[in-house]
Specification:
The protein has about 140 residues and is mostly beta strands. Helices cover about 0% and strands about 50% of the residues. The chain is globular and about 35 Å long. The termini are far apart.
Length: about 140
């Protein structure tokens, strides 16, 4: 009778350092709500953004990045260029680089969305504010 030996193998995926991302998970509070950096790698950053009911972010523009927004819960009023749209959960929009845009929560529950940024530079100082409810524009 043939005998066999059971073996177990643990499969592990090792990514080269040029491909692997650095895990961040840092939350920053803002007057309109908060954002958490979920992941960041070369040329991209993923954030979870929560906007309090009745609040909005500044009308702003970025020179070095575009953004994709996916609504997880709540309602988003989005101004992008000369267009305005309302988005609900599982709906999304794209904000091209160098385009004025604004995100607002017109609802009564928190707005939660996932933002995927793409670009060569993703720093928080790449924000040109045109109008801001919290006096953060430069005069």
């Amino acid at each position: 009778m043939a005998r066999y030996q059971e073996t177990t193998q643990t499969d592990t995926l090792h990514l080269p350092s040029a491909i692997s991302s650095k895990s961040v998970a840092a939350t920053e509070l803002r007057p309109w709500g908060a954002f958490t950096v979920l992941e960041e790698g070369r040329g991209y950053k993923i954030k979870r953004i929560e906007v309090k009911p009745g609040h909005r972010l500044s009308l702003q523009m970025h020179h070095h990045r575009s953004e994709h927004w996916i609504v997880v819960s709540g309602t988003a009023r989005v101004v992008c260029g000369d267009k305005e749209v309302l988005l609900s959960n599982n709906e999304s929009t794209y904000v091209p680089q160098c385009t004025a845009h604004r995100l607002e929560n017109p609802g009564v529950i928190p707005l939660v969305l996932i933002e995927v940024q793409n670009g060569e530079y993703l720093g928080e100082d790449d924000i040109i504010r045109y109008q801001d409810d919290y006096a953060r524009t430069k005069d």
